[in-house]
């Protein structure tokens, strides 16, 4: 008997003993609810084959999409410390250990160095699954060290942001990373080394208020949530209804906060074009300086 006829006639059969599909074999899109295989999803750049919804992915997946080969991981020895002996429902050290076990990562950001169509690039990519991609002292330090590495070797930098904001367990130590990374990026700008900022879903809080919006080029994936405070907080503060699509990538593009919104399948080629463009710009500036 077909499932529709059984449903119409109210026939219900216990399915407790029914064999279920292995975990990780299928993916159901949160936007259109269509189901596809994980193989189809991966082959489509981790986008829903039906509606093109960009699924949240982590640093390892972005590195695979961007670099020509497996990148060299930098600064993996840094670990967060419980300086404040912070405790909410759980002690902070316990949260860190659980996050490491769950994700296989040591922090909410991973720095990789490799080549994009044979052009060198350093990528610092955040992972939302590690305590909500929160910005703690190690995240700020890794970005700072990545900038130092770019300055020393004159390599462009890409930061891929995906964060719920500052890490409350580190209080002021977390907030200090906003000023620290912004100051470091000033050195990169003075040296004429390109900094690209890619904002993915979601990019919020102190990350948005600092390095995520300071790129020479700021861009995003489609429909990414980007903002500082949440819509509810803003609505209650200003006592007004918010525009349709508020805090989406498309809304920010329309109002001049982003340079472009990019489909993930085009990410590597667009980065290659940007690297080529800025390399030519720097070459011309060098030629002009030598002529003077």
Secondary-structure blueprint:
Elements lengths: L2 H6 L17 E3 L6 E3 H6 L15 H8 L5 E3 L17 H12 L5 E8 L2 E8 L10 H17 L3 E7 L7 H20 L4 E9 L1 H4 L8 E4 L10 H8 L10 H6 L5 E2 L5 H25 L1
Parallel strand pairs: 5-6, 6-7, 7-8, 8-9
Antiparallel strand pairs: 1-2, 3-4, 4-5
Helix pairs in contact: 5-6
Tell me the number of helical segments per DSSP (H or I, 4 or more residues long): 10
Number of strands: 9
* Low-confidence blocks of residues: 1-8, 10-22
SS strand fraction: 15-25%
Classify the oligomer.
single chain
| Global shape | globular
Helix/strand structural class: alpha/beta
Question: Describe it for me?
Answer:
- The protein has 292 residues and is an alpha/beta fold.
- It has helices at 3-8, 38-43, 59-66, 92-103, 137-153, 171-190, 205-208, 231-238, 249-254, 267-291; strands at 26-28, 35-37, 72-74, 109-116, 119-126, 157-163, 195-203, 217-220, 260-261.
- The strands form two sheets. It has a seven-stranded mixed sheet, sandwiched between helices.
- Helix 5 (137-153) links the parallel strand 5 and strand 6.
- Helix 5 (137-153) packs parallel to helix 6 (171-190).
Offer a few descriptive terms:
single chain, 292 residues, alpha/beta, 7-stranded mixed β-sheet, two-stranded antiparallel ribbon, 10 helices, 38% helix, 16% strand, globular
Gist of the model:
The chain is of the alpha/beta class. It contains ten helices and nine strands.
């Amino acid at each position: 008997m077909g499932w529709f006829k059984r449903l119409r006639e109210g026939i219900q059969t216990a399915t407790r003993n029914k064999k279920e599909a292995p975990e990780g074999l299928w993916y159901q899109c949160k936007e259109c609810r269509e189901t596809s295989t994980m193989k189809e999803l991966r082959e489509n750049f981790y986008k829903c084959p039906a509606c093109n919804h960009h699924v949240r992915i982590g640093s390892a997946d972005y590195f695979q999409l961007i670099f020509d080969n497996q990148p060299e991981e930098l600064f993996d020895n840094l670990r967060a410390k419980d300086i404040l002996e912070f405790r909410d429902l759980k002690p902070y050290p316990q949260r860190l250990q659980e996050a490491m076990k769950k994700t296989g990562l040591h922090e909410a950001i991973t720095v990789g160095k490799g080549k994009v169509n044979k052009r060198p690039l350093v990528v610092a990519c955040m992972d939302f699954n590690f305590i909500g991609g929160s910005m703690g002292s190690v995240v700020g330090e890794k970005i700072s060290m990545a900038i130092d590495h770019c300055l020393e070797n004159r390599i462009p930098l890409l930061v891929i942001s995906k964060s719920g904001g500052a890490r409350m367990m580190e209080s002021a130590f977390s907030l200090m990373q906003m000023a620290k990374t912004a100051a470091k990026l000033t050195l990169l700008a003075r040296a004429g080394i390109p900094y690209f900022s890619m904002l993915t879903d979601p990019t919020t809080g102190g990350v948005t208020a600092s390095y995520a919006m300071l790129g020479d080029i700021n861009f995003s994936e489609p429909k990414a949530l980007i903002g500082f405070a949440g819509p509810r907080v803003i609505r209650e503060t200003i006592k007004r209804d918010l525009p349709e699509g508020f805090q989406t990538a498309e809304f920010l593009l329309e109002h001049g906060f982003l340079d472009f919104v990019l489909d993930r399948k085009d990410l590597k080629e667009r980065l290659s074009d940007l690297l080529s463009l800025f390399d030519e710009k720097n070459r011309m500036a060098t030629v002009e300086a030598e002529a003077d």
